[in-house]
Structures are given as C-alpha cells and as structure tokens.
Amino acid sequence: MQGEIIATGTELITGRVADFNARYAARRLHEAGLTAQRLTILGDEPPLFQEILLRALGRSRFIIITGGLGATEDDVTVAAAAQALGLPLLLDEGLLARIHRCLEERQIPWLERYGRLALIPRGAVILDAGGLACCGFALKHGDARLFFLPGVPAEMQVLFEAYVLPSLMEWAGDVGVVAQRTLRLFGISETQLQEVVSKIPEFREGVRVGYYPNFPENHLTLTVRGRDRRILEETLDRLTVALARVVDDMLLGPEGTPLEELVGRQLKEGGLTLALAESCTGGLIGHRLTNVAGSSDYFLGGVVSYGNQAKLDLLRVAPEVLAEWGAVSPETALEMARGAKTAFGAHLGLAVTGIAGPGGGSPEKPVGTVYIGLATPHEVEVWHYLFQGSREEIKILSAQTALDRLRRKLKKM
Question: Would you tell me which of 29, 81, 220, 344 could form a disulfide with 300, CB atoms 3.0–4.6 Å apart?
Fold first, then answer.
C-alpha cells in the first residue's frame, strides 16, 4: 500500500526552517513496512497545494499532510483542501469549546481568528493531540485516506504515533516486518565504503543498503524485510559482524551512541582518567566529553592553551621546543600531552595543536596541518594529519580524530 507525504509552509522552501515532519513520517512508515512513494514540500500557496493534493489522490492510497492548520493568515491548508475536495467547512462546537478552555488555561486572550481552528471539512474526524489547541483530522475520500497534521513537530509526532500509524497498519493488514540498523563509521570515505560492501558476500541478497554522509562520519543503513523480527535482527547481527571483519576499527557502532560516549565507557571500564590540552580545537573535545552524563568519573579537566604563553605556563612546554619547532609540531603536541597528564594527575593526556585557517598556513605547514598527541602511563604517541575544509570543519575533524585515536588506543590497553 503506497502513499505520500505533503509538507506545507513557505518557511520550509525559503530555508528558514528545516523540515522534520516529512522525514519523521517517512522513516516511521518505512519501519512499519509501509511505503511513501513521494515527498513534496511546498509553500503556502492554495492553488499549488490543491493541484498537488488532487494529483496525489489519483495515485496514492493514503496522504499525510503537515502544516497550515494554525490560526494565522498563511495557514491555508484546511480551506484549500476543502475547496479542492468539494466539501463545505463546518464549525465543530466541541472543538471550539476545547480551544476556548485551552486558551483560558494558558491565560491567552481570545481573538476571533482562533475560531478558524474549529473549522473542518464535512466528514472529518478530529485527531486530538491531548489538550493542545491545534488538532489534526482524518478524512476518507474515495478509496484514499487523508491525514491532516499540525506543522509543529512535537504535535505532529504525537498525532502520528497515536492515530495515523495505527490506523494505516490496521488498514494495510499484514505487511510483514521491517528491521533496520544504522552503522556509524569514521576514517573511510563513502566511495571506499561502497567498494568494501560490494565485496562482502553476506550483503549480496535480501538486504537494502543505504549510504549517508553525516560529517565527519559516514553512516551505513541496512534494511531487511520478513515475517519474524528475531530472525531479521539475527541477520543484521551477521551483516554487522561481516562488515566489522573488513573495516575493523573504522566501525564505531550503531546509531545513537556518539564517539565521546564510547570513549567514556572505555575509560570507565578501565578505571582510567583523562586530561586534555587543546589548541586549535578551542575546547571542543572537552565540550563533547562533558556532554555525556557521568563524565566526571573519568574526565579530570583540560587546558585550552591557544596561545604560546599558556603552553609554557600551564602545560610546561619547554621554551626551546616552541622556539625550535613551533606551536604546531609533533614535538609540541608531545609536550602538551605530557603536560596535561601531569597537571591533572591523570592516567592519560590527550593534546591537539594545528592550523585551522583560513590563514596562518605556510608551504611547510599548510592550513589543515594538525598534530594529535596521546600520553599514556607507558608511552607518548603523536599523529600527523592534513585535513581539508573550512575552519569549522577542520576543528570538528581534529576533535573527532583525537577522540577516535583515544578510542583505538583504549581498545588495546
């Protein structure tokens, strides 16, 4: 059973607001084994909306429309849909009373335009968002079912989960089960990843593979369909293991577990503590680590030694090292890592120094030159990178790579 999604709102096509609703609905439909064959985003233009709606009715069994149900002048979805379908707009007295109560509870004064919220096409069934003023509604038209949902993502998602998805699942009957897993990789390009996957026998039959760049990572989505979810999950496990055999440490894990959380788990399980010395990343690594609840168990602190004096005074980098090799050098990264480890009394010291640009580079040390140092109880290692991109992208890549180097080292400790 195929359907489509129409997201309305001039703010969507001007780029002022990102569309979350169509993406959310498409993902949830896919997970349920239903198909959205088309996603359309358009502005608040009644004639265009009516044209697209009527075309959709000619090719789809269900249509999900989001946006344009509010009380302002640009909320035209309801009136435009009613006109296109040849249905009169009727005042729902129960809905009007509830709107009054909702506004009173929030101490919002009544305006006549709020009455528009209670106008719905004849035959529509109200979808109650649980006390919110802006509800949605469902409508049958011929062999198709239409669902009109508010544009506010939180309200849209409540109604989608409570009404739309259950209704479509019941209507569709047994559509089987879809299982999906998104794997996160770092250190391999999208092209390289495609080449790797094409050579793994387990991926050749019965699995749909999607490649999604998600800077600074690349994500691989695996989708399988069948009758037994347990069997499908076992299939995804086998696929994950098969991929891990080839890409090894470049596989970070499933979606939903950021790199800083993986590193935090490793530190905690090993009973290890960490200190940072950051230059070109400007505290970005510390910010990411402290985004994880409980990070105080293993992260002792950091120094943003952006200037040379901070490297000298706070990290005890030797003056002759800076004088001879410069702030961006393997020698300075090594000293910074040791200095952070010593200053905080940590088991590990992680340091980053580099040139994020757009200026400051030279033929010997171009923009994007970055050194990452890691001091452990037994040794100090330094890695050299030449990153490409904007200033922000180089900072993000530097932080990500530093955390990834730490992750790989912790796996061997």
Answer: 344
Structure tokens at 299: 């992260």
**Residue 320: what residue type?**
E
CA–CA gap between residue 244 and residue 252 (Å, rounded): 9
CA distance 88 to 115: 16
Q: Are 78 and 44 in contact (CB under 8 A)?
A: no
| Among 225, 254, 283, residue at a domain's last position | 254
* Tokens coding 238: 């086998």
* Separate counts of helices (H) and strands (E) for the chain: 15, 17
Question: Counting Cβ atoms within 10 Å, is residue 83 exposed (0-12), middle (13-18) or buried (19+)?
Answer: middle
Cβ neighbors of 234 (< 8 A, separation 6 or more) are none
Render pLDDT for 173-217 as a digit per residue (tens, 0 to 9). Answer: 876 778 889 999 999 999 999 999 999 999 988 898 988 899 999
Is the distance from CB of 66 to CB of 8 less than 8 angstroms? yes
The residue to which tokens 């006549």 are assigned: 112
Q: Provide the CATH number for the domain around residue 76.
A: 3.40.980.10
Question: Could you give the count of Cα atoms lying within 13 Å of 332 in the half-sphere of its Cβ?
Answer: 28
